Amino acid sequence: RFDPSLVDAGPAYAATAAGMVAVMALVTVGLSELEDYFSLAPAAATLNERAKPNALIVYQGEPRLASSLFFYLNRPVHWLDSDPRIEFASRELGLGDELFLSREEFRQRWNGPGSVYFITEGERVPEWRPALRLTPQQATPIARSGTRVVLWNGR
Prior knowledge:
The protein is an alpha/beta fold. The chain has helices at 10-38, 41-50, 68-72, 88-93, 103-111, 125-132; strands at residues 56-60, 78-80, 100-101, 116-121, 143-145, 148-152. The radius of gyration is 23 Å and the shape is elongated. The model has no long low-confidence stretch (mean pLDDT 87).
């Protein structure tokens, strides 16, 4: 009959602990490689450094997909292709409706006299070339965060 009290569990615990340390080290490396896919901190840092106070920052998509901008960007963000009724403050309190742009409003602002920075998925840049009449310089990202890019109208 097996008597567990006679077994020294120390080596097994040590091996398990060592395995856990190795796994956690690999997870840390993996997360550091993928962090730009989960955060717009690098894009926000570029915008904080380059954008003048009156520049317009526009993100294509829902605010919940770019929530890191609320934390890292030192200015309001405008939203394109987003429904303000999804956001509590807009829906219930009527706050922030002016931050949601239609495509036509965005086109006018992009082609107007003011400085505009546009954060979108890199794969969408070809779709925006004709819509915004992007020059080669405007179609070249000034920053990247994972698959998202920052375009600037050059003003």
